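hi! just following up on the protien thing from before. the input was this:
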Amino acid sequence: MVKAVLVTGASRGIGRAIAIELAKNGFDIGINYKTNSKGAQDVVEQIMAMGQKAVSLQADVGVEFDVKEMVKAFTEQFGTIFGLVNNAGIYDRKEFTKLTLQDWQNTIQTNLTSAFLVTQLLMPHISSNGRIVNISSVLAHTGSNFGAHYAATKAGLIGFTKSLARELAERNITVNAVAPGAIETQIIAGDTPEKRRERERITPLGRVGNTSEIAVTVAFLFSEKASYITGETINVNGGLIMH
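and the predicted 3d structure came back as:
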């Protein structure tokens, strides 16, 4: 049986690491990207070198037409789909009083509306016993200076996760979220040395995480070992927040 998974925003960063880790675990992967075609193709080649199938899928996942075309292309190639990782997102840091309505709407569209569109359109093709994982953020719990719009979308993903988990339980499809803390991605690449030290200081484990630590968490949620976990948010943040 083919086990294909669609990963949005998979040409770099956390999405890229998730796609590669899932391929290591025997899944065929759809690599969604918006503009980074070279990055997406590189991920495809890495996955194919492992002996798994992969396809790059260009789409702005906040746009319904794009998502319809992407889902059509993906399902035509793979048929029944095992799962979905809603990872695509943007983080444009701005003080709240300087946020424009367009800033707010762009972030909502990319980070939250995308999860609605992709999940709803792909859901008829997801097999029973399938998996959906939404990538949230530690900022969903703590809020964010200069990121009210971002934190709002990531908190929204947690509510979305719990709601879908209830609705899809009858199909035995699990729905969970993973909430990363500070991870080595482009989001923190511009940190000053002082900011970097502060991130490390406030994190009990004393360091920034890496993308592979998020990826293996997602892979666990896609495994049989996680078959009785649904509606949960797994925090991977070095102890920055604890529930």
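The first helix runs from residue 13 to 24.
The mean pLDDT is 96.
cheers
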